[in-house]
Design brief:
The structure is a homodimer. Chain A is an alpha+beta fold. In chain A, 49% of the residues lie in helices and 13% in strands. Chain A has 5 helices and 3 strands. In chain A, a hairpin with a 2-residue loop joins strand 2 and strand 3. The N terminus of chain A is likely disordered. Chains A and B meet through helix 1, helix 2, strand 1, helix 3 and helix 5 of A and helix 1, helix 2, strand 1, helix 3 and helix 5 of B. Chain A binds a DNA duplex through helix 4.
Chain lengths: 116, 116
DNA sequence: GCCTAACATTGATGATTGTCAATATCAAGG
DNA sequence: CCTTGATATTGACAATCATCAATGTTAGGC
């Protein structure tokens, strides 16, 4: 999975410290960027906020469509992105789909920043 | 700044809790999304990582171009986005431009997540 | 077995974005 | 001054994305 790049001898007379090999590998960076991509949209941030603040810790699509002033398919699309990023959990009960925060996901994402 | 939306009487017989007004306002969400947009690219994450791990706490563009395998204009472009997001600080000394982490910026961004 | 209601999926479209080539700026040295 | 070297800016292009209209799917009620 990790194809560590070749470390050059650093015999360079560059302007400052050579820094050598990137601390964050390409694959790892791609993976982390996926989570931040999911957060990089105002409407998705609002969706997370609403779900987080919902009474029972969960909310269904019908409750998420109105406050965002978006069409139902668009909200469904955003929710799918958040689920794929591991931030939201989806549970279907009857005709309704209930979305809730994945426990610890927010904290784990904050940890991604600290471990850059 | 905060144009609080009108709170409906919630006489609705919706499927679950009405949730009423979004916890995160539209403007606030847009602002927060800007920071995450800056983080939503693998190469920008790697740039942050390299700068963070650099010896003197700073790195110049010439040291950032090679490990990312990107053209110099592209790296400059990414750095500008990170500076605009308030994550990096740019200081020009002579011909070289040195980039360093804005103190506390990473922690503050992590705080954005916690206060969703 | 229909019909309706909630949600997901598909297809299309306009907007944004990441990248590069070319050019501009700007400081240091001769 | 003129040249060189480091970085920024501009313009263009392909790729990705956010959104919506239309349609598909599935569960419940009649």
């Amino acid at each position: 999975m990790n194809s560590l790049p070749i470390l050059e001898p650093a015999t360079d007379e560059s302007c400052c410290a050579p820094a050598g090999v990137p601390a964050l590998g390409a694959e790892e960076a791609k993976q982390k960027a996926l989570v931040f991509k999911a957060l990089a949209d105002p409407n998705r941030l609002r969706l997370l906020s609403i779900v987080k603040g919902a009474g029972a810790g969960e909310a269904c699509v019908c409750d998420l469509t109105e406050p965002l002033d978006l069409g139902q398919p668009t909200v469904s699309h955003h929710l799918k992105i958040l689920v794929d990023a591991g931030l939201l959990h989806r549970e279907k009960r009857g005709t309704w789909a209930y979305y809730s925060l994945v426990p610890g996901a927010i904290e784990q994402t904050a940890g991604l920043l600290a471990s850059l």
